[in-house]
Structure formats: structure tokens, C-alpha cells
Amino acid sequence: MTKALKSFASDNNAPVHKAVLGAMMEVNQGDVIGYGDDVYSLEAEQTLKELFGKDVKIYFMLTGTGANVAALSHITRPYHAIVCSDKAHLEKDECGAPEKHTGCKLHHIASDDGKIYPDQVAPYLKSVGFPHHAQPKVISITQATEMGAVYQPEEIKALAHFAHEHDLYLHMDGARIANAAACLDTSLVEMTRFSGVDILSFGATKNGAMAAEAVVFFNRELARDFEYTRKQSMQLMSKMRYVSAQFQALHSGNLWLENARQANAMAKLLADRVSDIPGVRITQKVATNAVFAILPPTAIEKLQRRYFFYIWDAAKHEVRWMTAFNTTEQDIEQFVSAIRDAVDSP
Ligand SMILES: Cc1ncc(COP(=O)(O)O)c(C=O)c1O
Hints:
The protein is about 40% helix and about 15% strand. The protein is α/β, with parallel strands linked by helices and about 350 residues long. The protein folds into 2 domains: about 100 residues, Aspartate Aminotransferase, domain 1 (Alpha-Beta Complex), CATH 3.90.1150; about 230 residues, Aspartate Aminotransferase, domain 2 (3-Layer(aba) Sandwich). A hairpin with a 7-residue loop joins strand 9 and strand 10. Helix 2 runs parallel beside helix 12 and helix 13 packs parallel to helix 15. The longest helix is centred in the C-terminal third of the chain and has 20 residues. The chain binds pyridoxal-5'-phosphate.
């Protein structure tokens, strides 16, 4: 992989937004208390509380996997089960960390777009009270999903209602919650707290931060002693001000939304511009910043010499292209022209 290749592989490959870096530079003076007891961290916490409500509990974390694993391990016992989609990051892409750290069994529901529904969770409840089976305790959903789809607030409410009716919690992996909010034109609080989510892994890294995630408890009871879980999960940053500054840069104004809108708009543009290229077929609805497409295998090979992106399903010749806050219209036009060349030339 050379440095020169433009990436459509992941929003993880995007740089850090300059305002985020600027905010980190701004707090980079003098000594402050470590581990989050500093003025910058308190300020960022207040900023997030304005978004989610004054009474939520917020814990800054370093990675999305760490946020998911710490959140889930805190609200479960090892004899529990977590129900999620088969596309869920915690099921597919966390190297078994959720299983290792929670001890829980993961039940994964087959899903094309990464979304799951109460009627698909219901069969797992047959295990409740049966000591030979892991006991379902959490439904975990991803907003936006790993396939770029979004849950409508009504769908989240239905899942929360179902979960609470059956003494389960609703966890949301919000690594790309900003993209979902931009797509739905709704607020972060509407999709989470007002929809009945108990606990959120709140992502900023894919939205322009360097390394900034948080666990947000809407169900305050659940937050008890989480500071110890965070430390045991190795997610308590000593120089916390630099994590806090990233949240402050994104969320004290509308930068988070502008970034997400730009990423989403560029994915839409890409999907529109390739829609009439013979041999290219979009396979998922483009709601946020991911485009899934089937291409002739020779075209994939040619294109990958010029651009970095992942093959999603090799058997189907399906690829995933992702955009980010820094993707420009010019990037898309150049990429589309490279796709045309790759498909056209024998
Ligand atoms: C949906 C989702 N959740 C969680 C994560 C984990 O983030 P990290 O790589 O920071 O552990 C990712 C990473 O790409 C993701 O796509």
C-alpha cells in the first residue's frame, strides 16, 4: 500500500479535522490535573450534556471497540447473551473482545443491511429461565449500521420497548451516529435517549476526531461504578484533556453535523454518478457514507491499483466504498472517471 493512493476504504483513513487538531493545540499549555479532572474535560462534558440532557453520565474513552466492550461488560454477567446483527462490528470486527471481556454469548441475527427488529429477537427469549442456556440481557444495535443503513427513531423505540418489556437493555453502537443524525435530519438525543436507548457508545473518531469516543448512560442506574470498569478496560486516558478537546471542537458548534453531512453527500454523489455505468450495480440503499457495489472483477483489480478500498464480498465481487468529512466533489469525479476507465477497458 503506497501513501499516494486516495482511500475510499473507510472514514478511519481520513485525517483529523484541522479544527480538532487546533483544539488539541489550544489545550496544549501548562499543567492540568490528569484523568479527566481538568477544566477542559469538564467543559466538554457540559457540552455533551447540553446535547443529551444534564442528568446523563458521560465517560470519555479512546476507541470504539473499547467503548463497546466496556459498556457491554459493565451491564452484563458472563451467563448473559447479547443479541445483535450478524453485521455488527462487535460480532465481526472486534476480534472476539466482547466475548472475552463480557463472557457473554453473542446471538447474531442474519441481516442484509445490519438492522434488526423485535420479532427477530423474540425467539431468543425462549431461553429465559432455562439454566442450560445463556440468558438474553442486551440488544445491541448499530446506528448507522455497518452497511450504511439507519434506524428510524420509531424503529429504535420499538426495540427499546421490546427490550424493556423483557428485562433487557438496549445498547447502541454509535460509532457513526453523526452520519445517522445527518441522514435523518434529527437530533442525537431523539435517536438515543428519547427513543429509549439505555447506553450509547458515542463515536467521534470517524466524524473527524483523532481518537475520541464516549460511553453515555441514559439509564443512570447502570452507570454506577463505571469509572472502575473504564479503568479495568484500559480506556482511562491520563492526559484526558486531549480527548475532551476533540469532543469540544466537534460538538460545541455544528462541526460534527457539517462533517457528517459532507461525508453522506459525497457517498450519495458517488452512488448517483456510478448508477449509469454498465457493469456497476449498487447493492445497498445509500443512506449515510457507505456505498456497496458489485463490479466486474477485472475492474476491481484495475481500480485497486489507483485507489485503496476493500472488497466486501469476494464471491459476489462486491466492494465497499466509504467517504469521510474530507471527501470532495473533485475526489468523487476523479474516482468515477477511474471507475469508468476500469470498467470500459478490457
Ligand atoms: C460500527 C463500528 N463500531 C465500532 C468500531 C470500533 O472502533 P475502533 O476501531 O476505534 O475500535 C468501528 C470501527 O470501524 C465501527 O465501524
